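Researcher: Please predict.
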Amino acid sequence: MAVAGAYVSSLVAELQCPICKDIFTEPVTLDCGHIFCRECITQHWENKDSRVCANCGESPSSGVLRFNHTLTCVAALLRKERASTTVCLKHHQELQFFCKEEEDAICFICQFSKQHASHHVIPIQNVLEEFMNEMTERRHVSEKAKAKYECSLKRIEEQADVTGVQLQRMVEVARQFLREEEQRVLDCVRKEEEAQQQEIEKEIDSVKEGLGILTSSLTEVEEDLEEKGYGLMLRKSANTDMFSNKNAIYRVDATRKRTNKANHEVEVEKHLNSLSTDVWDKMLAAIDTDMVVLDPNTAHKSLGLSEDLRSLFYHEVKWDQDDSPKRYDGCCCVLGAKGFTSGTHSWEVEVGCRSDWDLGIAQESANRKGKIVLSPENGYWAIWLRNGKQYQALDTPPVNLVLTSKPKRIKIVLDYEVGKLSFINTEDSSFIYTFETVFTERLYPYFTPTGNIGIGNTEPMVI
């Protein structure tokens, strides 16, 4: 009984109901794994609007209170221990056994009595060991669940960070695009304003000139009338042209006609429509370009990512990351956060003077665990550099590439519908390689700086 007593002492705290703080009476287990007295949890729910666990607040999915037989047995033993009843009251023998049917501790004589002859009787130590094993297993399950939830929390934080960074970049690109579109339309309006002003000023000059000539002619006629009278004026007109400035009159008439027909207005609707008709399509295209950020949930634990998720580098010490099913665990790879299922997309990667790197795309179902073999059959379309001079397109079969210059910045262009993935040296716009295939899955940008640490392979890769 010394061993049993030690077990009992260590289990007292474990066998207390969280509600009544006493040893369990008719213990029941909820779906979340927490245990209460049946009466305690029932009364607790009667005072609440909803049936939730009094310990963790989780709602039971089934609503079934599962009776815990083993715990009932152990609780009964502890109640007897707490009451210092270690001797059979009937036979005055030490209580060494436990009757499962009556859920009571009994002595050696009771075990062979008529009352317990057909009952399942086991040593008390076995009951306690059974319970200890159950509690140990339950604790192990709880620890695993806790670790899983903690990893989920960390993954959620990382996903929120990725989303926030991507959203900020998208909004900034949209703002910049709208600013440029606004300036473009304003420039068009100003140019039209200047053209209209110049035309009107030209007409004003013409009208002013005609007005000057007409004013002079009127003054001359008025003076002749005062001096010569109507008779002499008419006789003069018979021999000479009274209106010697007919060209001025014609000019004024022509100006008047042009003024009547002219529509000197800025075409407001045209300019507003130019901003509204296709601006959204253009803006979405602008946002889609250069919006590749890295997904930390896919990054190998030896990869370090910058805060803006736009650069990556190899780190010999593995970071403390959860074992997400999306994460690469054998090769130092990482994917872009956004996948593509249609359209044309492009992004640029600065590889600098690195001696080793991989670039390309990976389809969603491509293997990310263990050793990765880069090939179209395995869902990877990529090129790589090894030892600072060996360029290769990992096609089927692989193609050795001969480049006239070492690219420091590479542009990747994906045309999903056409089925092409092209790599371009941005310094001289020369084509490096083009894959041609039929894409059927979501595709993600693929990167790896490889795990080779040494001279010429320390600087980060930057998107």
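Model: The radius of gyration is 45 Å.
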